[in-house]
Amino acid sequence: MSELNFWRQLHVRLSLCFALLVIMATSGYLWLDMRNNQRFHQELTQQLHRNLASYIVSHLPQPLFDQGGHANQKMMTHIAEQVMAINPQVEVYLLDHGGQILGHALPQPAVVQPRVNMSPVHTFLTDQAAFPLLGDDPRSKTGQGIFSASAISANGRVQGYLYVVLAGHDYRGLVEALSRSGILQRGLSGGLALALVLLGGGVSAFVMLTRPLRRLSRKIQAFRGDGPSPHHKTKDEKHDEIARLEHVFDAMQVRIDEQFAHIQQNDRLRRELISNISHDLHTPLASIQGYIETLLTSQGRLTAAQHEQYLQVALRQSRLLSKRIGELFELSKLDDGRVQLQLESFPLAELLSDVVQSYSVEAEKKAVSLEMELPQGAAIEVCADIGLIQRVLQNLIDNALRHTPQGGRVWVRMETGDADRVWIQVIDTGCGIAQPDLPLIFERYFRAGKLTGDSQSGNGLGLAIVKRILDLHGALISVHSSQGAGTRIGFELKTNCRNIAAA
């Protein structure tokens, strides 16, 4: 298993790939070098001996063809033997118009091709020939080699061709023998040694370059993702792709750990939420159940007034239960993003007046003064979701009335600020909020009344709903309060719908 894992490591595979590439590149280079050297030698030899055939033809003591157009074999043998004696690598052939070999000085079994392809010969005789130009080797069925050629003419008529192979069969045999000699072997060994040096250096470089990648791999393997994981901040000062990837992973790990902690916090809040919901719903349900059971079991023994009282209490508790369930659903929709703003322009003063008027009876019952302060020329239109803003005002006024004692005062104030903003404040002279609790009042199920001693504190959802609605509008909200001196909660609304859309 460990051996399998070894071969799966990236730096091992990269090293093997590099080794293969080095071997292929070295082999290719050596092959190309040998081939280029061969072609260079061929071109050089053919250029130097380009006019050899024409020189031989021009210095013939006797013609190679008699008057009848037949080959002079003796003369051909004599010339071939002299030339080949001077340069053993040269082979001389006499050809007719079609390339048929008419004469040579070689043993007959040595010649295996009776005919030579004339296309290279005709190309050679032009001034546009590009060297090295290869032609057929009569001593090989498939081999080719460099050559020199010249036309043999008499009385203005071409009788045949002198075809001179510049690198004959004996020459090629000698080349093959030398290719197995120590000189070439040492050259190949030197090339192989160079390849091994490059290979070793490349493998070492890959090991060094992939060290950060292996370190990152260990980090990833150690990271579980199911809780806070030990991690070490990268101290590598390099700025290559792997280093940047490692820094990104470090940031991702920190982010995941933060999210995990947030999930744990949400889970704790969820458990608290379930507990609070159970309590808030159980209390009115138990009260309703108790009064209904009393009515059922005490029929005939209760007076009409007692019967009416019990029904009124049960009705109030059922309304309270309905209100709390409605707030839970409302807050759930706001948290899930299922509420879409229906923006429109409307006169703010009219909405404030309607909401304040709807709470006037409740304020009178509690002996609390409920007032409204509007600036001069208050015909100001704002852009918002009128239904949601009405809900905000209702929750703020309801919260203020609930925490203001008898004889206190609650008033709603509208102030114009910038050209495109209006501030609304709900102010009370109630019990106030302790300073440490101010950042928490918009949290779900936070009850400041528990700390202030207010026995009539709400269920902790009203201000949470206010915050979610104002966040949807992109509106700022501020809270100023002190214990025993009352509370002032203010928020802004914009007069231009385009500003809200841009936000």
Kindly report the average pLDDT value. 78
Distance between the termini: 58 Å
Quaternary organisation:
single chain
CATH first level of the largest domain: Alpha Beta
Number of strands: 12
CATH architecture of the largest domain: 2-Layer Sandwich
Across the major sheet, the strand order is 2-1-5-4-3
Low-confidence stretches: 449-457
Structural class: alpha+beta
Shape assignment: rod-shaped
Q: Which sequence of SSEs, written as H and E, runs from N to C?
A: HHHHEEHEEEHHHHHEHHEEHEEHHEEH
H/I helix tally? 16
Largest sheet: 5 strands, antiparallel
CATH topology of the largest domain: Heat Shock Protein 90
Number of domains: 3
Instruction: Provide the gyration radius in Å.
Output: 53 Å
**What proportion of the residues form beta strands (DSSP E)?**
15-25%
